[in-house]
Specification:
Mean pLDDT: 95
Strand content: 5-15%
Structural class: alpha/beta
Strand order of the largest sheet: 3-2-1-4-5-6-7
Shape: globular
Largest sheet: 7 strands, parallel
Number of domains: 1
Number of strands: 7
Radius of gyration: 17 Å
Low-confidence stretches: none
Number of helices: 8
CATH topology: Rossmann fold
Oligomer: single chain
């Protein structure tokens, strides 16, 4: 049996104070990695508290660092702090995302732009910032979504952003290959994290009817795929999008 061992590696997970990001950070930490839990420092202090609780639950080899993925200066400061703390950066998981669902006719400019800025531009800016600072042979995993392929009703902004993430992944897999850095994406189906639980019950029922496995995914089922992509087992895989959705798309 092959065991994934990330001892000595340092991973940055954006938006990792809760939900899938927290689960991913926990999974990578359990495999031996040092983990940087990124969070957006909101005015209420809620995200900071969640990030600090996540670090406390992990113990050693974990640190919480605030940064808005929409702000280049904050991104660079976060990466500098991560490298100063752990000596290097080997893995980046671009997980930070928001939803602002509304139909096209009712969607405001702000609802469109805020999702694009966080979910797409944020990924671009993180990748650009780490491109020359990620250790040779490093890993970038970008979180896409089934929404990028299906195009869910009321998610023109989210679907467009996540489709863009898949495109970024393909391009960067070519541009960063010279440094042996692999760039892949994971496109989950619906996972009942805090974000997934906002889906109305009647909509959930319609979705489950389309899933061959007959249920939504668990966060660990997604984070385990991310762990694989971050490991040496995936050393010859790059530019790919892994759809983890219970057979919803096949």
């Amino acid at each position: 049996m092959t065991t994934i061992d990330l001892t000595g590696k340092t991973a940055l997970v954006t938006g990792a104070g809760q939900g899938l990001g927290k689960c991913t950070a926990t999974t990578l930490h359990a495999a031996g990695a040092n983990v940087v839990i990124n969070y957006f420092d909101d005015s209420f202090g809620t995200n900071r508290q969640l990030a600090e609780e996540a670090v406390a639950s992990l113990g050693e080899r974990a640190v919480a660092i605030a940064a808005d993925v929409r702000e280049v200066t904050q991104i660079n400061q976060m990466i500098d702090a991560a490298i100063q703390r752990f000596g290097k950066l080997d893995i980046v998981v671009n997980n930070a995302a928001i939803i602002r669902d509304r139909t096209l006719k009712k969607m405001s400019d702000q609802e469109w732009q805020s999702v694009i800025d966080t979910n797409l531009t944020g990924v671009f800016q993180i990748c650009r910032a780490v491109a020359d600072r990620l250790a040779e042979g490093g890993r970038i995993v970008n979180m896409a979504s089934i929404s990028a392929v299906v195009g869910f009703y009321g998610q023109v902004n989210y679907s467009a952003a996540k489709a863009g993430v898949i495109a970024i992944t393909k391009v960067l897999s070519k541009e960063l290959a010279r440094r042996k850095i692999t760039v892949n994406a994971v496109a989950p189906g619906v996972v009942l994290t805090e974000m997934g639980k906002t889906i109305p019950e009647e909509v959930r029922a319609g979705m489950i009817a389309q899933i061959p496995l007959g249920r939504f995914g668990e966060p660990e089922e997604i984070s385990n795929v991310i762990l694989f992509l971050c490991s040496d087992l995936a050393s010859y895989m790059t530019g790919q999008t892994l759809h983890v959705n219970g057979g919803w798309l096949g």
